[in-house]
């Protein structure tokens, strides 16, 4: 039986003015709070990341691409409806969340821009199965908008469509950006390469569940959302090379961390001796990393600051420790770091003694 872990232990005070509403003008000019393996904290800028890594270290990025997943529609009665696509199942079928002023019934037809018909065929918890009269990819490209997080209080514009996307995004499917990757620009990638720091990629399509609050007092009772991920052979080989050479594997973002650790949970696909994954993976994960979890792959994590009482704050508290993380967050608040998706970043190393 799991030991009760109270969600209230993962709370902190955050002034609203520290929630970043816009990104820095230059991606790598954001700040970086570094927690080293000896529990020390260092106030840096993101472009200092290259100085904290060693030649041969491996950074693993998530190359998912945010789709224009938010659509405005209306009922026959004229009532407004908002659709947030979660996952495209086939060219005309998708799983989605729906917001409406009144209850949406199964069998209802709604319409987008007086042209595209959408039939609501079934429901599973918070999600609906939708049938579109036209190809969904085409509908999203023509009528959709990038879905900014709920704590960014503005309508997205052309600048957001550029900046709420990593520069290496290439595999469409996410409805939220892997935000740790937003800090990387060509300048920093070039410097990483020149210093002999290696880079590899995987894909995890971030879903709406990343913003789902924990509603249970005991976090062990929380059910995580499921996300699709893929780790190619080239990345597996890069991890194996890093292990062979005694170098670190550093996940860029909690999404990369969850994908890597999920792949290692299959004992038939994980080498305990070398701490590496053996085979490529294409699967789904609902892994909830929380204190007590033993990390199998990652040695450090580049990540943004996360919401109070969130699954992502709990994840980083498993890597360092709750006390170390909350102390660092308190320091960040006092030093006016910028929080969440468009905010500043952290580099968290596994602690020698948590």
UniProtKB/TrEMBL annotation:
Membrane-spanning segments: none
Recorded GO CC terms: cytoplasm
Keywords: Cytoplasm, Isomerase, Queuosine biosynthesis, S-adenosyl-L-methionine, Transferase
Compartments, record wording: Cytoplasm
EC number of this enzyme: 2.4.99.17
Similarity-based family: Belongs to the QueA family.
Function: Transfers and isomerizes the ribose moiety from AdoMet to the 7-aminomethyl group of 7-deazaguanine (preQ1-tRNA) to give epoxyqueuosine (oQ-tRNA).
NCBIfam families tied to this protein: PRK00147.1 (NF001140), queA (TIGR00113)
Protein name in UniProt: S-adenosylmethionine:tRNA ribosyltransferase-isomerase
Organism: Candidatus Kinetoplastidibacterium stringomonadis TCC290E
Classification lineage: Bacteria, Pseudomonadati, Pseudomonadota, Betaproteobacteria, Candidatus Kinetoplastidibacterium
């Amino acid at each position: 039986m799991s030991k009760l872990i109270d969600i209230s232990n993962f709370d902190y005070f955050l002034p609203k003015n520290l929630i970043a509403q816009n990104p820095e003008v230059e991606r790598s000019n954001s700040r970086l709070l570094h927690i080293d393996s000896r529990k020390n904290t260092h106030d840096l800028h993101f472009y200092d990341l290259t100085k904290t890594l060693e030649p041969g270290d491996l950074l693993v990025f998530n190359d998912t691409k945010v789709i224009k997943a938010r659509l405005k529609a209306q009922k026959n009665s004229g009532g407004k409806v908002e659709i947030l696509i979660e996952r495209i199942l086939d060219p005309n079928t998708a799983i989605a969340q729906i917001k409406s002023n009144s209850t949406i019934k199964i069998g209802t037809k709604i319409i987008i821009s007086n042209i595209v018909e959408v039939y609501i065929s079934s429901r599973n918890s918070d999600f609906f199965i939708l049938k579109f009269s036209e190809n969904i990819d085409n509908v999203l490209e023509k009528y959709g908008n990038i879905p900014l997080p709920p704590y960014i209080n503005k309508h997205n514009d052309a600048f957001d469509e550029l900046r709420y996307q990593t520069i290496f995004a290439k595999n469409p499917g996410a409805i939220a950006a892997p935000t740790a990757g937003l800090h990387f620009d060509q300048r920093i990638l070039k410097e990483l390469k020149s210093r002999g720091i290696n880079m590899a990629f995987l894909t995890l399509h971030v879903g709406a569940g990343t913003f789902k609050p924990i509603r249970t007092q005991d976090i062990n009772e929380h059910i995580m959302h499921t996300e699709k991920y893929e780790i190619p052979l080239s990345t597996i080989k890069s991890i194996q090379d890093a292990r062979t050479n005694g170098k670190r594997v550093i996940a860029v973002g909690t999404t990369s961390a969850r994908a890597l650790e999920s792949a290692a949970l299959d004992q038939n696909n994980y080498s305990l001796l070398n701490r590496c994954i053996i085979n490529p993976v294409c699967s789904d994960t609902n892994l909830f990393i929380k204190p007590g979890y033993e990390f199998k792959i990652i040695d450090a994590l580049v990540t943004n600051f996360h919401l109070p009482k969130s699954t992502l704050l709990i994840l980083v508290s498993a890597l360092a420790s709750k006390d170390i993380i909350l102390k660092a967050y308190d320091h960040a608040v006092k030093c006016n770091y910028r929080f969440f998706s468009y905010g500043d970043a952290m580099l968290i190393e596994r602690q020698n003694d948590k």
